[in-house]
Amino acid sequence: MKTVFSAIGRYIKETDWMLMLCCFSLSSFSTLLIYSLYKNGEIGRLNTVLVQPAMALCGIVAAIVLSKIDYHMMARLWKWHSVLCYGLALLVFPFGIQRVDWVDDKAWLPIPFTSISFQPSELLKISFIITFAYHLSKVKDQLNRPKQLLLLCIHGAIPCGLIHLQGDDGTVLVMAVIFASMLFVAGLSWKYIVPVLAMIPPAAVVLWNFFLDDDKKNRILAIIRPELVDSAITWQQDRGLISIGNGGLWGNGIFMETGQFRYVPEVYNDFIFTYIGETVGFIGCIAVLAALAFLCIRILHNALHALDDLGKFICVGVFAMVAIQIIINIGMCLGVLPVIGVTLPFLSAGGTSTGTLYLGIGVVLSVYMHSGKDMLFA
Q1: What is the pLDDT of residues 291-307, one digit of tens each?
Q2: What is the Cα–Cα distance from 219 to 169, expressed in whole angstroms?
Q3: Which residue from 12, 14, 27, 132 is spatially nearest to 357, judged by alpha carbons?
Q4: Average per-residue pLDDT in the chain?
Q5: Which residues in 340-356 are b (16+ Cβ under 10 Å) and which e?
Q6: How many other C-beta atoms are found inside a 10 Å radius of the C-beta of residue 25?
Q7: 7 Rama class: left (phi>0) / alpha (psi -120 to 50) / beta
Q8: How many CB atoms lie within 10 A of CB 328?
Q9: CA 345, CA 350: separation in Å to the nearest integer?
């Protein structure tokens, strides 16, 4: 037993314990919120509650294991994990399942002989971050040459296109932000950035008129011109805003009285932030936002102190993944962004999402632990 505690103590000294503590605290709070929803009758099965802490614990173990593996080795093994992740993503087309209440999202793969399913696109995000960081580190000096830039764009377009065909455009947007952030940090020239920015307005017009279906158009109109859409389209976000406002400054308590809870569709998943507002109020929301901000800042800190470009790009990719999900999710809950089905990191219910986030944190910890003693005490 003394040997075990000694090993744990050594690991805590070597790793970024503040980052791990932040993730663990958010997961613990998430479990408390989901159990509270179960007690309020919003979640019918206890199994849904148990998945969250179980996946968090598995994720922590996986993060610790990954942190002990040199991230350079992970990059060199890109063929193995990318083939595995792309293979699982392709299996969605013949064997994937679709949620009953989602029209076009067929992105879940059932695990044989169980009632459990998972989302391969979540694993693909982590593999993409590692492989794209490796690609960038190899061509950084030639990044702005048209041929190399074209190959990098193809590298980013393949997973985005594959996930789009599954109907999961929320994950496509997250992948696109990861791609753009890593490319920008690698040193993409403004001679490419400015024309792309200039193309956004006409591209948006073309997208609106020729590619978006009525459902996606209505989700956008619900934000900019709510009077033009049916009230059923805005009902979820309207209920979310009422729920947040119902919490006031200090909230109604995690275990509020029966009947006090304001129903919001998907409250335990995409709209968990509205329940945070109702249970712990404005002060609690600020505290959660502060914890999420610290999480992002700590990942960026590791990027700045990374040993090489590969480590820096990996951390930037994980930062982009976490940050854009926070922005989109809270924007949805506050009614300033369309509802596109993106979870709030470490807080929304979802085994695949939670486990994948811990894998990303594990890779960041690997960068931290293999970047020299100067970083360990930074």
Answers
A1: 999 999 999 999 999 99
A2: 13
A3: 27
A4: 89
A5: bbbbbbbbbbbbbbbbb
A6: 14
A7: alpha
A8: 23
A9: 10
- Assigned token pair, 328: 């989109």
Which alpha helices (DSSP H) does the chain contain, by range?
2-14, 17-39, 46-67, 71-76, 78-95, 120-139, 146-165, 169-185, 190-210, 214-224, 231-246, 272-304, 309-333, 351-369, 373-376
pTM score, whole prediction: 0.94
Rounded-to-integer distance, Cα 45 and Cα 56, Å: 19
What is the rounded CA–CA span in Å between residue 189 and residue 6? 49
Contact 18/377 with Cβ under 8 angstroms?
no
- Which tokens in the block code for residue 199? 């193309």
Return the structure tokens found at 84.
């595995």
For 51, other C-beta atoms within 10 Å of its C-beta total 19
Nearest-angstrom CA–CA distance, 82 and 268: 31
**Cα 178 from chain centroid?**
10
